[in-house]
């Protein structure tokens, strides 16, 4: 069902709004249980811009209090794949030493960006650091990342919506879909 403002640009829906929200509720419950006894709020770190929508829903679904931090990084590579060479455009506003940190990601593809980010954040001596991602693509298994919660394993195709963009469009879709091929050309 694509009766929405981008209807004629989206070929098909991969994950409906209901499916996404139901899965987030499950993930948040599991994470909440794991961190039920931490002393300070967990620190959710989302990487702009893609994870902004997911972290908003995830934080509100979490049964425990959390703080929200954002980072912006640029990866040297094409717009649809990353090289693993990363530059920080916007850093955290706070120190994460001795804090329980959860990196909240929209999608892990090659995992190169995230591997770099994990190494970078570990040097700041958090008490713990884990990864929660809404989506994971097949190549991510090569990255050898320990992931606490994965929302959905998806096929190796380009998807948009729910924070994910193509040329900055479609982040505002409540669902995740496949772009109509004619939108690429
Ligand atoms: P790596 O490969 O480092 O990169 O895990 C993850 C980043 O790649 C982008 N990406 C996508 N963006 N639809 C998008 O809109 C996709 O299907 C897709 N696959 C990868 C995204 O920026 C993500 O953070
Ligand atoms: Mg993007």
TrEMBL record:
Q: Is this entry keyworded Protease?
A: no
Which is one GO molecular function term here?
glycosyltransferase activity
State the compartments where it is located: Cytoplasm
What Enzyme Commission number does this protein have? 2.4.2.8
Looking at the record's lineage, which domain of life comes first? Answer: Bacteria
Q: Per its UniProt record, what InterPro entries does this chain match?
A: HGPRT, Hxn_phspho_trans, PRTase-like, PRTase_dom
The prosthetic group or cofactor this protein requires is: Mg(2+)
Q: Which CDD domains match?
A: PRTases_typeI
Q: Which controlled-vocabulary keywords does the entry list?
A: Cytoplasm, Glycosyltransferase, Magnesium, Metal-binding, Nucleotide-binding, Purine salvage, Transferase
Which residues are in the Phosphoribosyltransferase domain? 19-166
Q: What class of enzyme is it?
A: transferase
Q: What reaction does this enzyme carry out catalytically?
A: IMP + diphosphate = hypoxanthine + 5-phospho-alpha-D-ribose 1-diphosphate; GMP + diphosphate = guanine + 5-phospho-alpha-D-ribose 1-diphosphate
> What pathway is this protein a component of?
Purine metabolism; IMP biosynthesis via salvage pathway; IMP from hypoxanthine: step 1/1; Purine metabolism; GMP biosynthesis via salvage pathway; GMP from guanine: step 1/1
Q: Give the principal location in a single coarse category.
A: cytoplasm
Against Pfam families, the record matches this protein to:
Pribosyltran
The yes or no answer to whether the keyword Secreted is present is no
Which PANTHER family did the record assign? HYPOXANTHINE PHOSPHORIBOSYLTRANSFERASE, HYPOXANTHINE-GUANINE PHOSPHORIBOSYLTRANSFERASE
**Which family does the record assign?**
Belongs to the purine/pyrimidine phosphoribosyltransferase family.
Q: What is this protein called?
A: Hypoxanthine phosphoribosyltransferase
What lineage does the source organism belong to? Bacteria, Bacillati, Actinomycetota, Actinomycetes, Mycobacteriales
């Amino acid at each position: 069902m694509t009766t929405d403002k981008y209807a004629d640009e989206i070929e098909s829906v991969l994950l409906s709004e209901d499916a996404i929200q139901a899965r987030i509720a499950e993930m948040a419950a599991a994470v909440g249980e794991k961190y039920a006894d931490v002393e300070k709020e967990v620190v959710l770190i989302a990487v702009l811009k893609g994870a902004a929508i997911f972290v908003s829903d995830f934080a509100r679904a979490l049964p425990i209090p959390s703080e929200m931090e954002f980072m912006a990084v640029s990866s040297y590579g094409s717009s649809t794949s990353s090289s693993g060479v990363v530059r920080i455009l916007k850093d955290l506003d706070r120190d994460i030493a001795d804090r329980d940190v959860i990196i909240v990601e929209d999608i892990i593809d090659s995992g190169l960006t995230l591997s770099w980010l994990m190494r970078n954040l570990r040097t700041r001596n958090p008490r713990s650091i884990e990864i929660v991602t809404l989506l994971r693509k097949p190549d991510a298994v090569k990255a050898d990342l320990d992931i606490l919660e994965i929302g959905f394993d998806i096929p190796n195709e380009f998807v948009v919506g729910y924070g994910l963009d193509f040329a900055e469009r479609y982040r505002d879709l409540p669902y995740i879909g496949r772009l109509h091929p004619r939108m690429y050309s």
